[in-house]
Design goal:
alpha/beta, globular, seven-stranded parallel β-sheet, Rossmann fold, binds nicotinamide-adenine-dinucleotide
Amino acid sequence: MSNEFSGKTAIISGAAGGIGLALAEALAQQGMNIVMGDIDAAALAESGDALRAKGYKVLTCALDVTNYAQWEDVVSSATAEFGKVHMVVNNAGVGGTPGKIEDTEHETWQWVMDVNVMGVLYGAQACVPAIKAHGEGGWVLNVASMAGMMGMPYAGAYCASKAAVVSMTESWFAELQPHNIHASVLCPAFVKTRIHESYRNRQQKYAVAAEKRIDKEKLQAGAKAASMAVESGIPASMLAERVVEALVSKQMYIYTHPNYRKVTAGRFKAIDKAFVDSEQSPTVGHLINDDIVTF
Ligand SMILES: NC(=O)c1ccc[n+]([C@@H]2O[C@H](COP(=O)([O-])OP(=O)(O)OC[C@H]3O[C@@H](n4cnc5c(N)ncnc54)[C@H](O)[C@@H]3O)[C@@H](O)[C@H]2O)c1
């Protein structure tokens, strides 16, 4: 097979299951060498073997995305095995626990931010120099969510983390363009995975002391709603097929649920209306014709 992906190497975080595994298989089908990283050693070994059994070139690496040294090890192993790195898919993410502002433990908020935001930064910091090094160009694919395009009640930590991923990608898109590295951000709505059971791989460093733990019953309604929503989602394989299609046509925002357009349209309309309000402001309205400052 000869296409823009074949013979190149992709590192995918959170590749042991769900969306990461589906992307690993879809990119392997395009002829890529796949480096799968995950915090769940047993699931990673099983998924790695399953892809190898289908004839794909796969390397599995222990990876907690909140540990930068492990990211560096993954890049070294990938380079030793396949020669070069061309793509990083920053997919690993956790859902946290839906709940009221006052019911969200600090440790839970920190866990969501560290995995979903710092994990993406670390992935880019470790992989981008390796992609730049060979001068052939490549890809940075960050997995955000529709939650990064809209706030949702009781999900402040998750939405904030995904909005950060959207924003990081927009910044990196312009920064990486001169290096022929295409940055894109995947914003799916619900996909049938185990995201609602993210606590299964929560690291000990984010454990909540018993006396501070929020009453489970309080959180149950949110957890049930999240599980029903995820169960109603599209299959991860459909999402992965859509991602390959969008990477080929160099889309920056990658949507998998066109029915959510009305949500972003409503948000953009409200943001734009706020500018009209500022134009009519007696305090700042006169700034309307000033030059825009960027750097
Ligand atoms: N499923 C959905 O409805 C949905 C929607 C929008 C966005 N997403 C995003 O898709 C991405 C993948 O999630 P998923 O739905 O496949 O969930 P999932 O729980 O099925 O898979 C997540 C994978 O990430 C791994 N992981 C968790 N913490 C990790 C860490 N610290 N380091 C390395 N690996 C870690 C898990 O072991 C698991 O294999 C996440 O970023 C998620 O926020 C999911």
